[in-house]
């Protein structure tokens, strides 16, 4: 179990990935973004998750460059993720999209590159492109995002390399238990986006009661629940105080009983699109 913000889990190919990272979904490119990424790195975060679709890779890249200089870090000290957008799926388009992301980020390589959504009829060609990038040593790890069990099975039918990570919407109202069980059997690391259900769970009565018992915030309880279940998580925040709070997860442990109570909150309720029914 992680004891520290920089503790990592080992992906199936031996690459180490931090349990906790900073997400930058819906953070507009600009000063606020640059500042929040720099603050996160200054406070010990080493994993930053962006995507071509967020249109903020340039700002993330600027923040990374400045933070490395300010904190005396090397590129190897950081774990940077981006994702190929739906419009760029297909073999050649994915290879080009990877180069475009690197150029915007100002980086030589990514630690993790994901297919953002399972667009029918397109994601397998993109997976082939990710395998090409990985085999050529251009990216440290490859994976997918928003893939259900049947999407993973479909990819793995023809894949030479299994996805190393599957980043999905996951929180106490959408605990994704069947997907988690399947992924564990396959050695695919689950990563949660929207772990706090975009703030909708912060007033949840059971979570508030548990949080009060530990003298922690609801957000900290949810993120700790993720961690104790072996789920990587990337809470998004632009507020320094919240960035610090989200990382203060290592001085308490949820009891088995409280873990079960949180597990029992599942409603299979999404705040984001359904991966089996989206049109973008």
From TrEMBL:
Keywords: NADP, Oxidoreductase. InterPro entries: AKR (IPR020471), AKR5G (IPR044500), Aldo/ket_reductase_CS (IPR018170), NAD(P)_OxRdtase_dom_sf (IPR036812), NADP_OxRdtase_dom (IPR023210). The keyword Oxidoreductase applies. The keyword Metal-binding does not apply. Residues 31-266 form the NADP-dependent oxidoreductase domain. SUPFAM superfamilies: NAD(P)-linked oxidoreductase (SSF51430). Belongs to the aldo/keto reductase family. This is Glyoxal reductase. It comes from Paenibacillus borealis.
